[in-house]
Design brief:
The structure holds two protein chains of two kinds.
Chain A (H helix, E strand, L loop, with lengths): L3 E4 L2 E5 L4 E7 L6 E7 L5 E8 L4 E4 L2 E6 L4 E6 L8 E8 L6 E2 L3 E6 L1
Parallel strand pairs in A: 2-11
Antiparallel strand pairs in A: 1-3, 3-8, 4-5, 4-9, 6-7, 7-8, 9-10, 9-11
Chain B lengths: L4 E3 L2 E4 L5 E6 L4 E9 L5 E8 L2 E4 L8 E4 L6 E5 L8 E9 L9 E2 L3 E5 L1
Parallel strand pairs in B: 2-11
Antiparallel strand pairs in B: 1-3, 3-8, 4-5, 4-9, 5-6, 7-8, 9-10, 9-11
Classes of the chains: A mainly beta, B mainly beta.
Chain lengths: ~110, ~120
C-alpha cells in the first residue's frame, strides 16, 4: 500500500525566504507525482506535475524535483510571499488513476 | 472549458437525513474520483468511477455510502442517514479517457458537508 509522508507538517517563515517542502513515498513504482495548493476552505489547485521519467519541473518561483528511486520529491519555493500561504499537498499516481495524497504542509508566510 | 464542477458548495443536514453530492467532470473526461477530507486530515480516496461503472470502491464505507456515474448527467455521491462523523469536505476529481495514465487529475472546489 502506497503511503505518502510530507515534512514538515507546518511551517511559518518571514517573507522573502526560500523554502523546501518534502514529500516521500513508500512505493517507487509511480507514473507521476503532482503538487497541489489548497487555500483554507477551498479546493485544490494543481501546481506542478512531474512524470516518472522526469527529474524536475518549474513554474515561476516554484520548482519541484523527483527522485523516484529513493521515493522523494521536494517543492522549492523561491522568495516566498504572504500570498504563498496555503497548504501544499503532494500526490503520487501509481497508474490506476487514483492519486494517493500526503497530509500536506501548512505554510504561513508573514510580512 | 469549465473545470470540475461540484454542487452544492456547502450542505447542512440533520442527523438521519440523506446527503447527495454532485460532480460534473471536465468536458471530455470520463473518469471520476471522490475523496473525503476530514478536519486536520489528508485527502482519503473513496471511489473511482467511469461512465456507468464503479472501478474501485475500496475507500468507501461499507454502509450508508454509494456512488454512481450515469451515462448522462453528473456523478452522485450519496450518503444515507448521515451522522456527525460524516461532516467533512468531499472532493471530486476527473481525468481523461484511459489511454495514457500520465495525465494529471483536476479537482473541483469541493462540497463541505456539515451534519448537525
Amino acid at each position: 500500500k502506497q503511503e505518502v509522508t510530507q515534512i514538515p507538517a507546518a511551517l511559518s517563515v518571514p517573507e522573502g525566504e526560500n523554502l523546501v517542502l518534502n514529500c516521500s513515498f513508500t512505493d517507487s513504482a509511480i507514473y507521476n507525482l503532482q503538487w497541489f495548493r489548497q487555500d483554507p476552505g477551498k479546493g485544490l489547485t494543481s501546481l506542478l506535475l512531474i512524470q516518472s521519467s522526469q527529474r524536475e519541473q518549474t513554474s515561476g518561483r516554484l520548482n519541484a524535483s523527483l527522485d523516484k528511486s529513493s521515493g522523494r520529491s521536494t517543492l522549492y519555493i523561491a522568495a516566498s510571499q504572504p500570498g504563498d500561504s496555503a497548504t501544499y499537498l503532494c500526490a503520487v499516481n501509481k497508474g490506476s488513476y487514483i492519486p494517493t495524497f500526503g497530509r500536506g504542509t501548512s505554510l504561513i508566510v508573514h510580512p | 472549458n469549465a473545470g470540475v464542477m461540484q454542487n452544492p458548495r456547502h450542505l447542512v443536514r440533520r442527523r438521519g437525513q440523506e446527503a447527495r453530492l454532485r460532480c460534473s467532470p471536465m468536458k471530455g473526461h470520463s473518469h471520476v474520483y471522490w475523496y473525503r477530507q476530514l478536519p486536520e486530515e489528508g485527502l482519503k480516496f473513496m471511489v473511482y468511477l467511469q461512465k456507468e461503472n464503479i472501478i474501485d470502491e475500496s475507500g468507501m464505507p461499507k454502509e450508508r455510502f454509494s456512488a454512481e456515474f450515469p451515462k448522462e448527467g453528473p456523478s452522485i455521491l450519496r450518503i444515507q442517514q448521515v451522522v456527525r462523523g460524516d461532516s467533512a469536505a468531499y472532493f471530486c476529481a476527473s481525468s481523461p479517457e484511459a489511454r495514457e495514465v500520465r495525465t494529471e487529475a483536476f479537482f473541483g472546489q469541493g462540497t463541505r458537508l456539515t451534519v448537525v
